[in-house]
């Protein structure tokens, strides 16, 4: 069993990311597996200088131990390009120069993640933009995956998403491609992450199928919400940020957030003591699927 934690260095570690780190760490270690650390610095304009180093240092201070070297997506461009070439040779890709406005005007209906791409450029670029994105052709069939927390997930990509981008028009590789290639190359067999990424799973399952690779197990954890009832993020400010000073208490809250009956006296325990307790008592059956308010740290 090989699990992983893959944060994006767009700011300091917040409570929602700590929940994902903790859940992935415990689920890997409980099965005597490896736990990898990957920094998803794929989008340079969004990367905050020093954020990755601060996250790594904080994880160490909280007692997380990973196996092997840390993987940085920014060093993986050649590998992503190799996979694009493979998919191109399989005739599964096409160039698209549609602008977002053109897609909005031609999309048959909106999907949960924006307009459904209608296949305008499948026979060759017809948009007005000079820059070309690269899209993966999808099929009119149901993509199924059984999540270990949320149960059976099904999505017809052609009807609900459309052909999706693997390399953006600005030349950057898309998250959907990078995450699958990285997990395959690292031998990841267990993907544990927040439920905000549940809608991406069908696209990633389809990519695994295109590359003829076995699927990992998926565990999606409940979303941590800010006071505005939106997904917790850096915009929620200091109340959501995990630090060396509040890290042990944040771990206690994260265990409770994941449904674990960690005793009240352990709220004053060290991070090391909390992780030791969790490795003896953690139960995936206790994890809820409902979004929950994040605690004030």
Give the SSE map:
Blueprint: E1 2-5, H1 15-29, E2 34-39, H2 51-61, E3 71-72, H3 77-89, E4 93-96, H4 100-106, E5 110-111, E6 114-115, E7 133-136, E8 142-147, E9 151-156, H5 157-160, E10 164-167, H6 175-186, E11 190-194, H7 201-210, E12 217-221, E13 224-225, H8 247-257, H9 271-281, E14 292-293
Parallel strand pairs: 1-2, 2-3, 11-12, 13-14
Antiparallel strand pairs: 4-7, 5-6, 7-10, 8-9
Write a brief caption for the model.
This protein has 297 residues and is α/β, with parallel strands linked by helices. The chain has helices at 15-29, 51-61, 77-89, 100-106, 157-160, 175-186, 201-210, 247-257, 271-281; strands at residues 2-5, 34-39, 71-72, 93-96, 110-111, 114-115, 133-136, 142-147, 151-156, 164-167, 190-194, 217-221, 224-225, 292-293.
How would you describe what is shown here?
The protein is α/β, with parallel strands linked by helices and 297 residues long. It folds into 2 domains: 2-74 and 222-293, 3-Layer(aba) Sandwich (Rossmann fold); 77-177, 3-Layer(aba) Sandwich (Rossmann fold). Helix content is 32%, strand content 18%. It contains 9 helices and 14 strands. It has helices spanning 15-29, 51-61, 77-89, 100-106, 157-160, 175-186, 201-210, 247-257, 271-281; strands at 2-5, 34-39, 71-72, 93-96, 110-111, 114-115, 133-136, 142-147, 151-156, 164-167, 190-194, 217-221, 224-225, 292-293. The strands form 6 sheets. It has a 3-stranded parallel sheet, covered by helices on one side. α7 (201-210) links the parallel β11 (190-194) and β12 (217-221). α1 crosses α8, α6 crosses α7 (201-210) and α8 packs parallel to α9 (271-281). The two termini are 33 Å apart. The mean pLDDT is 93.
